[in-house]
Each structure stands twice: as C-alpha cells, then as structure tokens.
Design goal:
disordered N terminus; 465 residues; single chain; 80% helix; globular; 19 helices; mainly alpha
C-alpha cells in the first residue's frame, strides 16, 4: 500500500499548474453542493409564511408555534457538533447525502403531520440535516475550487441560502403550508441525485491516503489536459501538516494563545444572531401583520431587496475590505431595527396611524438589505481566516454551535418579547447592532489582501514563533 501511495503521489507532482478556469465539472459540482444551501434557506424561510396556516389547521397556540419555529436550531446545534467528525469519517459527498436523508424525512413528517409533536419532530430532523450541511457544503466547495476562484465560488453558499429563504417567502404567499413543505423536498432530491455525478473532494481523499483517487478527482475537476503540479503540491503539504499537528479539543481553544481569535470569531457570531436576523427571517409575516402592513406585499418586497444586496456584498467584499463593509452593514441593521421600533411606538401611542405601517416596512427592508450586504456572510469568512490550522476544526465546530444557539434563543424568545413590548424588542436589537459597529472597529482585523499566515501571526503571535 505504501508503495502505491508513493507512486501515485509522485504522479501528482509531475506537472505544473497555472491560473485555472472553472471547468463544467467544478461548476456542476458547486451547483449540486449549494442545493444543500438552498435547502438550508428553505428550512429557515418556511416558518414565517406557514405560521397562520399551521396554527389554524392544527389548533396550535403561539407558545407551541414558537417551539416549532425554534426547534430547527436545536437540531442544527446537534448537527453542527458532529458535522466535522462525520465529514472526516464518511467524506464530503456521503455526508451531504446523509444530511439530505434527515431533511427528506423531516419534510415528509411535516407534510403528513396532524399533531404538533410530529410537526416538531420533522422540524428537528431538518434542523439536524442543515446543521451538518452548514459545515460540509462550504468546506466541499473550497476544497474542489481552483485556488484563484475559491473565494467567489465559496460565497455562492451564502447567496443560495438567501435565495432559499426568499423563494419560501415568495411562494408561501400563494400556496398553503403543506404544499410549501412538499416544494421543500425538491432541492433535497436534486442534491441526492446530483451527488452520484460529482467527484469527492481531492483533499479528503489525500487525507485518508487515497492518492490515486485524489489524482483522478483532480484531473476530473481541472480537465484532463490541465497540469496540476502546484495544486497537488499544496494538497501534499497540507496533508503532511495535518499529520504532524496534534489533535486538539474544544478545551484547547481557551488557551491565552488563541484568546483574540476566539473573541473575534465567537463575538461576531453572537452579535450576528442577537441582532435579530432570525427573528425577522422566521416571523417576518407576523411582524408585518402586527405593524398593520400587508404580509404578502412585505414578503415580496423582502425578496426584491435581499438577493441583490447579497450579490452586491459578494462583489464588494474584496474591494472595500471586510471591516468597512461589516461596519456599514451593522450600522444599517441598527437603523432598520430603530425605524421598526419607532413604527411600533407610534402605533402604541396611536400617532400617525397611516405612517407607522410604512415605517415598519422601510425598517425591515433596511435591516434585511444591510444584513445581506455584510453581516450575513462576512463573519463566516473571517472565522475561516483567523484560526490557525491546528485548531480550525475545533474552532469551526464551536463557532457554528454558538451561532445556532444564538439563533435558537432569539427565534424562541421573539414572540414572547413581542408580547412584552414590540418597540422594546426592536430597540434592543438596534442597541446590539450598534454594539457590533464598535466591536468591529475595536477588535476585528482587516484580512483583505493578507495571507493566512500573516493574519494568524498577528492574531496569535505565539503560534508563529
């Protein structure tokens, strides 16, 4: 076996690599992978347009529906904890396929549910599936993409999550909730079928010592006539580094060496979630109804705003830099929450009743567009850049769990907060978004145009010695 591996490794290093273009196989493999991101978005976007129908058909109370809406994040937290181990053990393709099995079972349980517990079980299964997908999809895309195109291809993951949410909001204004759940099955099936026609990640194959399969996957992804010397050398060096570094646990992250990276990575995720994004994503229909505005028109307006602003954020990320875009995005979400809070305050005071619903729409749209511009995707980009390679797996799992835990807290508590004080809820979100601007200004480094080694040396100086 050792001789075969050595021969195969040498074969990988016989050719030289230049700037690479995206082959049809890379594009198709990325589209199959981001079908999982679309499933993620559909799951998040389902609860808002389905709320009225489910509560009426199954006789659920607001408390019970809050459990249904938020239990998705409980499943996702569990999925996030085990995602790294599963992806390393089974491979990227099989992990995506396994995740979709959970999502399919979850959607079927929702479609046929007549009682609330089956509805919750289905939502929990979908949550587990998307918790794993939220890790493995961007990892797979990054590992198959050419180096010079890796950033652009990886950001398609966030774009498709946004598209999935928007599609559910749009379709949900015209179709009942069981039909909406049936539509949610379609991208799951598309990914399962597509996985049979795409290659496994060459880096994962190299990691487990399958050099011949790694070579085959690389040639398939880059084209038979493309020279792969430099990329093969990168894979070889990366694999050797992994084998040399000791295994780390989550507890190793809390050493003083990694303190700044941990504060930045976890802090961005906490501020992202507690700024109210999933309160709006999960319950946007009820927000518009409470504000006295048409939920149908509001949801369509959200779709019109979200996708273009996400595309704009992708284009600006490597032009303006991470920090300025994050601060502008966070300031915009602060303004959006503040305007929405003012609209509810005017409603309670019965002042300008004709104006407050319009102000609520403007506030929600400003929040949605601003979040899509930077706060949605950049924290994940920065997280992938600031942690040294020896702790990246453990750090990634921790940050993902923190993100989903924050999502659960906000999505579960939101309806109760709105009953306490609608304007107070959004003023609280606004204050957190304002804190995000200060956090980014004081602690988050600019990573644009810097190598990973430079970033990690500045964030974790002891690891560079």
């Amino acid at each position: 076996m050792d001789g075969t591996s050595s021969t195969s490794e040498e074969g990988l290093l016989l050719t030289r690599d230049g700037n690479q273009s995206a082959t049809a196989v890379v594009v198709f493999s990325t589209l199959v992978a981001v079908s999982g991101s679309f499933v993620f978005g559909c799951a998040v976007g389902f609860s808002s347009p389905a709320q009225t129908g489910i509560m009426d058909d199954l006789g659920m109370s607001l408390d019970e529906y809050s459990v249904f809406g938020s239990i998705l994040t409980i499943g996702a937290m569990v999925g996030a904890v085990v995602s790294g181990k599963i992806a390393d053990r089974l491979g990227r393709r099989m992990t995506m396929g396994l995740s979709e099995m959970f999502c399919l079972l979850g959607w079927l349980a929702i479609i046929y549910s007549q009682v609330s517990w089956l509805l919750d079980a289905g939502r929990l299964l979908i949550g587990y599936g998307i918790g794993v997908l939220s890790y493995v999809v961007p990892v797979y895309i990054a590992e198959i993409s050419p180096q010079n195109l890796r950033g652009a291809f990886t950001t398609v993951n966030q774009l498709m999550i946004c598209v999935g949410v928007s599609v559910m909001w749009l379709i949900g204004t015209f179709f009942p909730w069981r039909t909406l759940a049936l539509i949610g099955i379609i991208p799951c099936l598309l990914q399962v079928i597509g996985l049979f026609f795409i290659p496994e990640s060459p880096r994962w194959l190299a990691k487990i010592g399958m050099w011949e399969d790694c070579e085959s996957a690389l040639h398939r992804l880059r084209g038979k006539n493309v020279k792969i010397f430099e990329e093969a050398a990168e894979i070889r060096d990366y694999t050797k580094t992994l084998h040399q570094l000791s295994e780390t646990s989550v507890f190793d992250l809390f050493q003083p060496t990694y303190a700044k990276s941990l504060i930045v990575g976890v802090g961005l995720m906490v501020l992202q979630q507690f700024g109210g994004v999933n309160a709006i994503a999960f319950y946007v229909d009820s927000i518009f109804i409470s504000a006295g505005f048409s939920s149908t028109i509001g949801s369509i307006a959200m779709v019109i705003v979200q996708v273009p602003f996400t595309l704009l954020g992708v284009l600006l990320m490597d032009i303006s830099g991470r920090r300025p875009l994050l601060m502008v995005s966070a300031a915009g979400t602060c303004l959006g929450c503040f305007l929405t809070g003012i609209s509810f305050l005017l409603q309670d005071l019965q002042v300008n009743n004709w104006f407050s619903p319009i102000l609520a729409l403007v506030g929600v749209l400003v929040f949605s567009g601003s979040f899509s511009l930077g706060m949605g995707g950049i924290p994940w980009v920065i997280m992938s850049e600031i942690f040294p390679i020896n702790i990246k797996g453990s750090a990634g799992s921790l940050v993902t769990v923190v993100n989903w835990f924050g999502s659960w807290v906000v999505s579960y508590a939101f309806n109760f907060l709105m009953k306490w004080s609608s304007e107070g809820t959004f003023f609280m979100f606004a204050s957190i978004c304002c804190s995000t601007v200060l956090f980014v200004a004081k602690l988050v480094p600019e990573t644009k145009g810097r190598t990973l080694e430079e970033i990690q040396a500045s964030m974790n100086p002891l690891t560079s010695n």
